[in-house]
Amino acid sequence: MANGWAQDGAVQEQIDDTVKDAVLAARARLPSGEAAEDCDLCGEDIPEARRRALPGVRTCVACQSQRDAAVRHSAINRRGSKDSQLR
User: Fold this and answer.
1) What's the CA gap between 18 and 5, in Å, rounded?
2) The whole model's pTM is what?
């Protein structure tokens, strides 16, 4: 049930679009191509099992963990829902 000027299902459409955007962004960050034998950041060997599991991987587990911890996500609702504007 929509409120105000929104059509029925508009809230679910926003949720679906947000999830779709997040999935596409995550897929874009996945490595592709030929995997490196040595980490691009620290030079340590990348285990064969990791290279088979993640085609195109360029970093070791330790360096990738540090990179993942440094990722910041925006808390801005780009679709401009009333709820986000009232906060």
Assistant:
1) 20
2) 0.53
Would you write out the chain's pLDDT as a tens digit for each of its 87 residues? Answer: 445 666 777 888 888 999 999 999 988 888 788 999 999 999 999 999 999 998 899 999 999 999 888 877 666 656 665 555 555
Find residue 38's DSSP bridge partners.
45
| 58 residue type, one letter | R
Tokens of 27: 């897929």
- CA 29, 32, 37, 43: dihedral to nearest 10 degrees? -30
Task: Supply the DSSP string of 28-42, one letter for each residue.
Answer: HHS--SSPPSB-TTT
Helical ranges in 30-81 per DSSP H: 48-53, 61-70
Query: What angle is formed at CA 23 by the lines to CA 21 and CA 24, rounded to 5 degrees?
Result: 65
